[in-house]
Design brief:
4 helices; 3503_t:CDS:1; 31% helix; SKP1/BTB/POZ_sf; BTB/POZ_dom; alpha+beta
């Protein structure tokens, strides 16, 4: 027996659970999914890959400099912020990184020790 009440009488949300039995339609749906082949990946054009690699290595190409294990990547803070919530909060929020021109951070792993370093890992 179903019971109903007016929406304004509800103080919080309602969660409704549904349990379905295995049906012929569901079996057909499962078979259709398993028979389909995955979509083939399109080849990434080599000239585009070379252009992006060149862009990451050019000193004046971005407003962010990231140095990891003595390798430097130049990037755009606008692109990083659009593609990552983390970088969006970093560049557009009230983090200290928003107001500093150089943010020195060190990565600690099991086999490494902490060293004072003058290398700038992130420059915005």
């Amino acid at each position: 027996m179903a019971q109903f009440c007016k929406r304004e009488l509800l103080s919080d949300s309602i969660v409704i659970g549904v349990k379905l039995r295995r049906t012929q339609l569901l079996d057909q749906f499962d078979r259709a999914l398993t028979l389909q082949r995955p979509m083939p990946l399109k080849a990434f054009p080599k000239n585009l890959e070379a252009a992006w690699n060149n862009e990451f290595q050019r000193t004046g190409s971005g407003d962010v400099k990231i140095t990891i294990q003595e390798q430097t990547i130049y990037a755009s803070s606008a692109i990083l912020a659009k593609r990552s919530d983390y970088f969006q909060r970093m560049f557009e929020g009230s983090w200290a990184e928003c107001n500093r021109s150089c943010n020195n951070q060190q990565q600690i792993t099991d086999d490494s020790s902490i060293n004072d370093s003058d290398d700038c890992l992130l420059t915005a």
